[in-house]
């Protein structure tokens, strides 16, 4: 989060692929991102993210999309910042996921890949 914030995200738009419960969006919204889109295949995660946004008073700045990102990518707009937090390692077609998500990043593309320990 610190590395992305240092790049100047004030008033930026965010697309979080596999955004889950919204941890990335909530943090970056608090650091100046104007709006975010959370795409996740889990309705339970999206519901949790939506509830947290309501509690934080940021639900008007967040959009929630349900589905497999690669399948619905043609319907998803570009964003200034695109993030994937531990999604690449788990997705069945990493090449398609990276291609589709990176093509939507106007300024910043941030990924987290878990390390084997």
Walk me through the structure.
The protein is an alpha/beta fold. It contains five helices and five strands. The protein has helices at residues 2-5, 23-30, 43-56, 69-72, 94-102; strands at 13-17, 35-40, 62-66, 79-85, 105-112. It has a five-stranded parallel sheet, with helices on one face. It is globular and about 35 Å long. The mean pLDDT is 94.
List descriptors.
single chain, alpha/beta, five-stranded parallel sheet, 33% helix
Count up the helices. Answer: 5
Q: State the secondary-structure class.
A: alpha/beta
Q: Which percent bin holds the helix content?
A: 25-40%
Sum up the overall morphology in one term.
globular
Q: Unreliable runs, pLDDT <50, ≥5 residues?
A: none
Q: Beta-strand percentage?
A: 25-35%
The oligomeric state of the chains shown is: single chain
Summarize the structure.
By secondary structure, the protein is of the alpha/beta class. Helices cover 33% and strands 26% of the residues. The model has no long low-confidence stretch (mean pLDDT 94).
């Amino acid at each position: 989060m610190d590395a992305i914030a240092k790049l100047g995200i004030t008033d930026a738009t965010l697309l979080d692929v596999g955004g889950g419960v919204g941890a990335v969006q909530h943090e970056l919204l608090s650091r100046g991102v104007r709006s975010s889109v959370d795409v996740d295949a889990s309705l339970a995660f999206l519901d949790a993210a939506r509830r947290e946004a309501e509690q934080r008073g940021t639900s008007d700045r967040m959009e929630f999309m349900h589905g497999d990102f690669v399948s619905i990518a043609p319907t998803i707009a570009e964003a200034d910042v695109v993030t994937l937090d531990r999604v690449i390692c788990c997705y069945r077609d990493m090449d398609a996921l990276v291609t589709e998500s990176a093509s939507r990043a106007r300024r910043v593309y941030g990924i987290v890949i878990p390390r084997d320990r």
